[in-house]
Write a structure and sequence with these properties.
Elements lengths: L13 H27 L7 H16 L1 H9 L5
């Protein structure tokens, strides 16, 4: 049996922390894509190449990194 969580020391759930980490990676990737598109469309006065790099890196963060993190954190098969 586990002891109930006390107000001084809450129980830490690694699955919850990993879920939020993956969500944060996706959100940061989406923001990078948005900034990259704004730069490549000349809405922001920054170098065009920076916009391309941000867009590609953002798509990588949105579509590839969550799969990599989920595979890395997968529980071993019982």
């Amino acid at each position: 049996m586990t002891a109930p969580a006390s107000p001084e020391r809450p129980v830490k759930d690694p699955a919850r922390a990993r879920f939020f980490a993956i969500a944060l990676v996706r959100l940061s990737g989406a923001v990078m894509v948005l900034l990259g598109l704004l730069i490549t469309e000349r809405r922001l006065d920054l170098p065009w190449a920076l916009g391309v790099v941000l867009t590609v890196a953002g798509f990588f963060d949105v579509f590839v990194m969550p799969k990599i993190l989920a595979r890395r954190w997968r529980s071993p098969a019982a």
